[in-house]
Amino acid sequence: MRDDPPTSPTEVTEETTWFDRSADRTSHAVAKPPFFVASLAIVVAWVYWGFVSKFSHRWVDALVILVSLVTFLMVALLQNEGWRNAKATQRKLNAMAAALAELMTKSDVDEEHVEQLHAAVGVEKRESTTRD
Hints:
By secondary structure, the protein is mostly helical. The protein has five helices and no strands. It is elongated.
């Protein structure tokens, strides 16, 4: 079992799981032109096969199943990638806010501003979507 999760950028290690690595590779692969070209080729082949099979139910079902499976897997992998990116960005922002608050404490900045900056660190864990 892992220790407490990292709270600052320096506590994050290079160690990633197979799923994280897969999500990284997938997000990089689908963002490139060859993925679009391959997808377009599949659509063209599917339409061609539709003419050959006289647009049978089997023809429609084949694409529905293929698209459903690919979409299901892609959503899981890309959601993981987005979630990890959001966590990393928040850690970076928290580290910058903490460093800025430290600098402000050592200068002649109003104490209220320093308190507001300290309160901003980690606010995403305290923020509710039900508040106005």
